[in-house]
Amino acid sequence: MFNRPIPECAENEYKEVAWGIKADGEKFAPVTINRPKVGDFDVKMDMLYCGICHSDVHIAFNQLGGKTMYPCVPGHELVGKVVEVGPKVTKVKVGDHVGCGCIVDSCLDCEVCTQGDEQYCLGGKSVHTYNDRKRYTHIGGNPDTQTFGGYSGSQVIHEHFAIKIPEGMDLKAVGPLLCAGITMYDPLKHWGATNKDKKMTIGIIGIGGLGSMGIKLAKALGHKVVAISTSANKMEMAKEKGADDFVVSKDPESMKAHTSTMDLILNTVSASHQASTYIPLLGVDGTLVQLGLVLEAHAIGVGSLYRTRKTISGSHIGGIASTQECIDLCHKANIYPDVQLVEAKEI
Amino acid sequence: MFNRPIPECAENEYKEVAWGIKADGEKFAPVTINRPKVGDFDVKMDMLYCGICHSDVHIAFNQLGGKTMYPCVPGHELVGKVVEVGPKVTKVKVGDHVGCGCIVDSCLDCEVCTQGDEQYCLGGKSVHTYNDRKRYTHIGGNPDTQTFGGYSGSQVIHEHFAIKIPEGMDLKAVGPLLCAGITMYDPLKHWGATNKDKKMTIGIIGIGGLGSMGIKLAKALGHKVVAISTSANKMEMAKEKGADDFVVSKDPESMKAHTSTMDLILNTVSASHQASTYIPLLGVDGTLVQLGLVLEAHAIGVGSLYRTRKTISGSHIGGIASTQECIDLCHKANIYPDVQLVEAKEI
User: Fold this and answer.
1) Residues A62, A150: one domain?
2) Cα-flanking dihedrals φ and ψ of residue A118, to 5°?
3) Are residues A334 and A307 in the same domain?
4) Domain check: are A94 and A206 in the same one?
5) Looking at this predicted complex, what is its ipTM?
6) Are strands A311-314 and A282-290 parallel, antiparallel or unpaired?
7) DSSP β-bridge partners for residue A288
8) Which residue of A has its CA nearest to B297?
9) Does residue A199 belong to the interface with chain B, where contact is any CB pair within 8 Å?
10) Which of A63, A68, A70, A128 is within CB 3.0–4.6 Å of A58 for a Cys-Cys bond?
11) B199, B302, B307: which to substitute to probe chain A, counting the most A Cβ within 10 Å?
12) Per-residue pLDDT of chain B (347 residues; tens, 9 = 90+)
């Protein structure tokens, strides 16, 4: 961790109230932050809801390898109402509902941004919604002011990073779609599951928040979905979410019955594990995508990959256009996470 | 190893002379084998040349995990002249030059075969040109007779598995194109390097037989090619083969200068090593393809993959249509390995 005092509120900034952690070891409390005033391409949203993600807690309490800068205001699942737009904004208008996910800026110029993968801009240097520094030109205000998340009264973002929330969505449950939703949707899209001509068998490992979202999305896209868990405890839940089948990864018989059957497996497990466990489930040209950041290395035998061109990859959130597609699909297919509402002071 | 005596020559077979190993511990010596007589779709080739691959030696002397069946006649880089064809053969005619690579049968019916990946038929159960059992219906003769390779006077194969050798090719140097050539060509094709609109930066690790072939093929396909080796010893050789640049993987400065620059890396190293060494060289969406069967597991950190959607995969020889494309490209671009001719008795 390190301290990075918030600069004086500049002329092109305004003061806003937020809930955050002022210094290492402290608890959540009100913090006054600076937000940029609305520029030509900016959208100001008044916060209606903001999801509380596991990683918010880890970062707020400096549990992710010491990268937390204080004061820290978390929140990367923002849902709000547009109250002001810059003169050149065309994407949304005052009164619209908008979301803001994990990133608020990237160069928007490199090959990776241009193809819609802003999250991987220049090797992963996109600007996170909080606990980050402004690195590019699409966030106004004082360039030295760090980024602050959605546990606050309002947010101002460049329109490019605003996600339009279709009318009629359940606003209180949209937040996690901007994080867990896109984390699952983007690899589904990248590995072909949004191609309407393709019928795939898709495995989802881990039936928590990410996994449940993955089951619902893969099912809504028309695929056969197989939930995978270490024990049978979550079978009923997985099937309620839409899974067609279930594999108990610690049961050799269950694993054998599904050997070489899957085209794509999304692995949401972030607890220590060995990815090699799941490789036998992949068919020819199958891909295992690691989504959870396991710090321990995975021991991978080449033979398990090269005999039938299997692949191991990883994926990290998703780009803006892809996030919009995800929200639109969730709206159409009525996909939401289970949520519990809390007031800011209860955090 | 195990012994599998050659059955009596059946009515639908003929006897042929070959060079092979009759039993574990013996040396190369003449062996009499049975070949199927020419059936409706078969092509009989008189052997002109047959490449001697490293794996031939390993298998002949039972150095690959005890899977050798004796008598064993190696050879999977066959080059010959067509001397007889079945009445239904349309692909080649008597007098043509043909090649036969690593596989001589597969189901030809599954999704994988249908898409031209016979080498991955039903999870890798294609029939190898030697040291294998007939499993499908496209090899004639006694179904109990094992397969024998090209260290022999003639071979009879189903036309599907015959590769046409264009007129004017240097026949004595074609053999290795059917093994090393396709081993490098198929992953180049699979990961987009035959797409004429794409200009990629392609790394080739290991500058031996496979690596040299990879450099020449990737260059002929119009890409920037970077040779990668543990030391600078092979720099001159790699540049002679066509490499545009060279990375010394044990030199941190050299590695740093090429960080995040490569779209595709083909790793030919089969000695013990850690693939993770090379992951930093990959750019966003880059793929590292393992071609050498390293028995030791590779320790792969998820963070190195998921931050920019990098991928590790493996690839094993290639399909028949792809082998034909490889031969045609080598003909057009005048690509051959360096070869040394030996007589059968010198093996």
Assistant:
1) yes
2) -55, -30
3) no
4) no
5) 0.93
6) parallel
7) A265, A312
8) A301
9) no
10) A63
11) B302
12) 889 999 999 999 999 999 999 999 999 999 999 999 999 999 999 999 999 998 898 999 998 777 899 999 999 999 999 999 999 999 999 999 999 999 999 999 999 999 999 999 987 789 999 999 999 999 999 999 999 999 999 999 999 999 999 999 999 999 999 999 999 999 999 999 999 999 999 999 999 999 999 999 999 999 999 999 999 999 999 999 999 999 999 999 999 999 999 999 999 999 899 999 999 999 999 999 999 888 889 999 888 898 999 999 999 999 999 999 999 999 999 999 989 999 888 87
Please check whether residue A283 touches B, CB under 8 A: yes
HSE-up of residue A65 (Cα within 13 Å, Cβ side): 4
User: Does A190 touch chain B if contact means CB atoms closer than 8 Å?
Assistant: yes
A293 in contact with B, Cβ within 8 Å: yes
Whether residue A148 sits in one domain with residue A84: yes
Chain B partners of A314 at a C-beta cutoff of 8 Å?
A: 302-303, 305-307, 309-310
- Asked if A302's CB is within 8 angstroms of B120's CB, the reply is no
Residue A201 sits at the vertex; the CA angle it makes with A196 and A280, to the nearest 5 degrees, is: 145
Q: Which helix (H) or strand (E) is A216 found in, with range?
A: helix A209-220
Chain A / chain B CB contacts < 8 angstroms: 125
Spatial contact of B276 and B304, defined as CB atoms under 8 Å apart: yes
Question: CB-CB: which of A117, A302, A315 is closest to B290?
Answer: A302
Q: Residue B63 corresponds to which amino acid?
A: Q
Alpha carbons B132 and B116: distance in angstroms, whole number: 21
Cβ <8 Å between A305 and B293: no
CATH of residue B111: 3.90.180.10
Contact B126, B106 (CB under 8 A): yes
> Are A264 and A222 within one domain?
yes
Co-location of A142 and A166 in the same domain: yes
* Same domain? B102 vs B218: no
| Number of other CB atoms surrounding residue B180 within 10 Å | 26
Q: What is the CATH number of the domain that holds B190?
A: 3.40.50.720
**Residue B272: closest C-alpha in chain A:** A302
Q: Does B293 touch chain A (CB under 8 A)?
A: yes
Domain count of the fold of chain A: 2
pTM of the entire predicted model:
0.95
Q: Which domain holds residue B295?
A: 181-314
- Per CB-CB distance under 8 Å, the chain A contacts of B123 are 260, 283-284, 307-308
